[in-house]
Structure formats: structure tokens, C-alpha cells
Design brief:
alpha/beta, 4 strands, 22% strand, four-stranded parallel beta sheet, 100 residues
């Protein structure tokens, strides 16, 4: 399983430096939607990382798909996206609360 990161150039830079290979620059809404759709179809991606402000820019139908996605598990950084905390997202994807 791989991690994919989608966002503006500044957002993905740190992930690139950390060794994440699947990083996609999305400077406008069209590119953002295009990259998200592409990553959803990539069977190798287990985790998708987005900026929470970018999550709000995604069309509603695609956002609902991301919010309900288990593979890849979608992590929005920069706030609690969709009312779900990081803990709740991990519990949902793994099936166990790792903090207990």
C-alpha cells in the first residue's frame, strides 16, 4: 500500500522530502478533482492525504465518496474534516480503536 498526497506545491513539498512518491500538485479546482478521481482508481493507494481546505473545494458528490471511502482511507490535514477526527478515521479503516 502506498500513500498519495494531493494539494498545492507548498503542501506536497514536505511529503516529497519525506519520501512519498505519489504526490500530485493541484493548483486549481479542475486539477484537484482530476487527481482525486485518478487516485481513487489506483488500487495501490491505501491512504490519501489532502488539505482540509482542498476537501471543501471538491464537488459534493466526489466529497461524499471520499468521506465514505475505506480504501483509500482519506485523511484531511489542517482541521477535522467532515466532523471526523483522525482517531475516528483510523478506527473506521482498521476496525479497532487503537487508543484503548
Amino acid at each position: 500500500m502506498e500513500i498519495a498526497v494531493i494539494g498545492n506545491s507548498e503542501f506536497i513539498l514536505g511529503f516529497r522530502l519525506a519520501g512519498i512518491r505519489k504526490t500530485y500538485a493541484a493548483e486549481n479546482d479542475e486539477k484537484l478533482t482530476e487527481h482525486v478521481t485518478s487516485v481513487l482508481q489506483d488500487g495501490d493507494v491505501g491512504i490519501l492525504v489532502l488539505n482540509s481546505s482542498d476537501m471543501e473545494r471538491i464537488p459534493r458528490k466526489l466529497r461524499v465518496t471520499l468521506e465514505n471511502s475505506v480504501k483509500p482511507t482519506v485523511i484531511a490535514i489542517g482541521g477535522e474534516e467532515g466532523g471526523l477526527s483522525m482517531r475516528e478515521r483510523i478506527k473506521r479503516s482498521v476496525g479497532v480503536d487503537l487508543w484503548k
